[in-house]
Amino acid sequence: MTTLTVVVFMLVYLGMALGRVPGLALDRTGVALLGLIVLLASGDLSLEAAGAAIDMPTIALLFALMILSAQFENSGFYAWLAERVTHAAKSPKLVLAVLVPVSGLLAALLTNDVIVFALTPLVCSGLLSQRMDPRPFLIALAGAANAGSAATLIGNPQNILIGQTGGIDFWPYILAAAPPTLLSLLAVYLAILLTWRKALVAGNRVPTADTASRAAPLDRFQLFKGFSAIVALVALFLSPLPRELGALAVAGVLLLSRRMSSRETIAAVDWHLLLLFICLFGVTKAFAETGLAQSGLQWLAAADLLPERLLVMAPLTLAASNIIGNVPSVILVLSLLPDLPDGALTGLALLSTFSGNLLLTGSLCNIIVAERAQAAGVRLSFADFARSGVPMTIASLAVAIGWLWITGLMRI
After folding, report:
1. Is 174 a domain residue?
2. Model pTM?
3. Is residue 224, in this structure, part of any structural domain at all?
């Protein structure tokens, strides 16, 4: 029944905006799963149609990258890196200057969500042990991971989906995305430097109890395997082999280990994120089949308001990313507009990613940082994030819009 499908669709995306159901311990993944169950039980969506709606290449690629990230985590690399970043420099500004590019680079290679999931508690522990306020550095971690992830088609879940659905070439995209990404990382650094001046003064320490920070031993052999896997992955991306198959092949080789349990490695996969994707594919498929979206698109096309222009794409991605999140919004856009040109897809990848830095709810990456920090004893509030997120996002979007227009990838 069309009415039920529309109601479920609206409630699911309302849940994406709120993050959880008030009064219930139901998060975004739970909301999406419950919505899909209602559609399946009512007969509005068949199990076969739900299965066909899942973009398996996207799920497979994301899974493989999580296995690759687990290799680095199990080798002790993340703990070693966080310890070096938070302890090597006496100046908080220098810590910030190191954290931003390192987070951005790792996110571009291993996806932003898995990077911040691993690094957030380690950064908190290292900074609290020195009685430093972790909040500006946590915002830097999230902002830089978001911004840096825009550089590649494997940097974040929405870019993976865009690359797989649109068939965008891996290396031409990097050439198009690298300049605005580098400038966006600079915007992240400057925004935090300006909005957290007191917390970044050398010698300024918050009155917290010392917390011992001991990095896990670095397993150099396993770390070598991880970097070798990245080299192999890049080489496979140059071949005609589909990206998801190349990534799965690399992940399969990493599982062949005498020293690291496959159970432990597979347990490091963010299954909640994968399930969220699967459920949203089904819910948006059911809504697309009502015909309401197509009618709306016809009206937008007649008014020249399809998101193939910057004046439409930029405000659309900014609003949608911070209302329902950039991953759900990209899934929605691609399900309704599967034939966007390459330039518009590049714009969607850059603008939706940079828009996710505006508010704490704009990106799953931001939410992961806040929740992991809370578990580590650091509260990162909505206002804390917005004071830096707003200026860094405005600057990043301005750079991206100018770049997309100058290069001719999108028209105004």
Report:
1. yes
2. 0.81
3. no
